[in-house]
Amino acid sequence: MKGYTRTPNITCLICSKSIYRRPNELIKTKGHAFCSIICYGKFCRKESPCLMCGKPIMAKLNKKTCSRACANKHREGIRYKMERPHDKVVYQQGLKFRLLKQRGGKCERCNYPKTEILVVHHKDKDREHNDLDNLELICPNCHYEEHYLEKSWLNGYNLQH
């Protein structure tokens, strides 16, 4: 008996070649049948078009363009860091420099002289209220005392034996 062949009952989803698959396999795969691993790979491949030229690219890693040339064309009209919005870090640094010029480079509570470590403290504890009369330049130790000393777990604990 020569090679036994079944009558094809379905076609490959990719190349439309007639193939046979067991009925229970077709139920399991919801009718998806492929003639080879190559066609299955093509089915699994997810592509999206390049935003500039329309060439299909793999839809992974949030790629939007197919090449560096298309990426450059895509970025052509974008203006980076022009008229940038209110930057909190730059604003806080500016406040600190203004306070250093105005009040000197020492902690306003204990006169610690290292300007590099001084922090801006809001007296009313409202970070949005940045009037200069509401701000103090203090060292980290004084800042810690201001915010955390009253909440310390050692409060009321007798350290003398």
Number of strands: 6
Proportion of residues in extended strands: 5-15%
* Poorly predicted tracts of residues: none
- Give the total of domains: 3
Oligomer: single chain
Structural class: alpha+beta
- The portion of residues assigned to helices is 25-40%
Which CATH C-level class of the largest domain is it?
Answer: Alpha Beta
N-to-C CA distance = 101 Å
The arrangement of helices and strands along the chain is EEHHEEHHEEH
Domain HNH nuclease: 95-144
Protein name: HNH nuclease domain-containing protein
GO molecular function: endonuclease activity; nucleic acid binding; zinc ion binding
InterPro entries: HNH, HNH_nuc
In short:
29% of the residues lie in helices and 11% in strands.
Task: Explain this structure.
Residues 95-144 form the HNH nuclease domain. This is HNH nuclease domain-containing protein. It comes from Candidatus Daviesbacteria bacterium RIFCSPLOWO2_02_FULL_41_8. The protein has 5 helices and 6 strands. With 161 residues, the chain is of the alpha+beta class. The chain has 3 domains: 1-45; 46-76, no CATH class; 88-151, His-Me finger endonuclease fold (3-Layer(aba) Sandwich). Strands 1-2 form a two-stranded antiparallel sheet. The longest helix is centred in the middle third of the chain and has 16 residues, at 88-103. 6% of the residues are buried. The mean pLDDT is 85.
